[in-house]
From TrEMBL:
GO terms for cellular component: mitochondrion. The keyword tRNA processing applies. Residues 26-35 have a biased composition (Low complexity). GO terms for molecular function: GTP binding; GTPase activity. InterPro entries: G_TrmE (IPR031168), GTP-bd (IPR006073), GTP-bd_TrmE_N (IPR018948), GTPase_MnmE (IPR004520), MnmE_dom2 (IPR027368), MnmE_helical (IPR025867), P-loop_NTPase (IPR027417), TrmE/GcvT-like (IPR027266). NCBIfam families: PRK05291.1-3. Residues 253-327 form the G domain. This is tRNA modification GTPase GTPBP3, mitochondrial isoform X3. SUPFAM superfamilies: Folate-binding domain, P-loop containing nucleoside triphosphate hydrolases, TrmE connector domain. It is found in: Mitochondrion.
Length: 401
């Protein structure tokens, strides 16, 4: 009997199958493992002290040998000073630091190489052209390095999103939140919840198959119900607090409104620490909506200085008042500004499925509700996602990341 029970546990633990590697990288690029090696400039464009060019794929070692002298690979994960030359003409390109990251101990999980060259445009262009001449190499698509890391299991989907947020972070608070997600806090939380559902599902399926067996432990369904109730409480608390993180990521839009000469423009200038708005004792000085981004103790905000709300004496001031009233609409109406709506969608879907579990009159239907709930949790971290969703997530990455 216990052998059959463990079979059920293993079957429940497997859950939905992981998605197959994607076969499209935005514009028809091959998927990881297809034999293609990609390269790109990973640092910013323009003149700089050091520019980082990276490769990922099976031909990375050949690319490193082709451009460097001596031709042997450097020790793994140790920077070495090498002369870079064009493999076609032998012309020297730069004297640079190179690093070799053999897979799977690399960012993408594939063989990777990095060239830390001087940041002049001519140097960067010369090295990129030289890499393009190596057989088996092609320029990377936007976000392709990170997408390969996801496809090869180096990052979960929530960690990918944390990396994207870290790249775009403009304030300290945004940086801290992005690092927490990149470190896998949300992934670990969702996996823990999924394990709870796996146990509950195993208990339900065990009762379905062995309910009449005297050797089956008593109270097995009660434990499943208790686990579901605890998970419902945790999900509900997380959903009620979810918009705090979303607002931090996207920033707040703060409209400064009120009667004329109330100090709106002075407040905006004080918070932004620069003379954004003209300050005058004359009513109606601010005629249009003036906007400026600010960092309020680590939280990003867009301040809008508006015209004083009063009966305007002229058409210009009336237009300013009309615009001020349109920015100050009821914040409780309209769609919420959720930048990671898919997280909330799947958590709500999981909670709804748990509700169906409690209402189910048949144990088979209850078990199916638990599978659906678990499926929503695994999709948050990347299991069962569609290629179209992945394309949307990765399109925000720059080329070289």
């Amino acid at each position: 009997m216990w052998r059959g029970l463990w079979t059920l546990v293993a079957r429940a633990a497997r859950g939905p199958r992981s998605p197959r590697p994607c076969t499209r990288q935005g514009s028809g690029a091959p998927a990881p493992g297809s034999g293609a090696t990609v390269f790109a400039l990973s640092s910013g464009q323009g003149r700089c002290g050091i520019a980082v060019i990276r490769t990922s794929g099976p031909a990375s070692g050949q690319a490193l040998r082709s451009l460097t002298a001596p031709r042997d690979l450097p020790p793994a994960r140790k920077a070495c000073l090498r002369l870079l030359s064009d493999p076609r003409s032998g012309e020297p390109l730069d004297r640079a630091l190179v690093l070799w990251f053999p897979g799977p101990q690399s960012f993408t999980g594939e063989d990777c190489a990095e060239f830390h060259v001087h940041g002049g445009p001519a140097v960067v262009s010369g090295v990129l052209q030289a890499l393009g001449s190596v057989p088996g190499l092609r320029p990377a698509e936007a976000g392709e390095f990170t997408r390969r890391a996801f496809a090869l299991g180096k990052l979960s989907l929530t960690e990918v999103e944390g990396l994207a947020d870290l790249i775009h972070a403009e304030t300290e608070a945004q940086r801290r939140q992005a690092l927490r997600q990149l470190d896998g806090e949300l992934s670990h939380l969702c996996r823990g919840w999924a394990e709870t559902l796996t146990k509950a599902l195993a208990h339900v399926e065990a009762y379905i198959d062995f309910g009449e067996d005297d050797n089956l432990e008593e109270g097995i369904l009660d434990r499943a119900d208790s686990e579901v109730r605890e998970l419902e409480v945790a999900l509900g608390a997380h959903l009620r607090d979810a918009r705090r993180g979303q607002r931090l990521r996207s920033g707040a839009h703060v409209v400064v409104a009120g009667p004329p000469n109330a100090g709106k423009s002075s407040l905006v200038n004080l918070l932004s620490r620069k003379p954004v708005s003209i300050v005058s004792p004359e009513p109606g000085t601010t005629r249009d909506v003036l906007e400026t981004p600010v960092d309020l103790a680590g939280f990003p905000a867009l301040l809008s200085d508006t015209a004083g709300v009063r009966e305007g004496v002229g058409p210009v001031e009336q237009e300013g008042v009309r615009r001020a009233q349109k920015r100050c609409g009821d914040p409780s109406t309209g769609p919420p500004l959720l930048t990671r709506a898919r997280h909330q969608h799947h958590l709500q879907g999981c909670l709804d499925a748990l509700g169906h579990y409690k209402q189910a009159k048949d144990l088979a239907l209850a078990a199916e509700a638990l599978r659906v709930a678990r499926g929503h949790l695994t999709r948050i971290t990347g299991g069962g996602g569609t290629e179209e969703i992945l394309d949307i997530i990765f399109q925000d990455f720059c080329v070289g990341k």
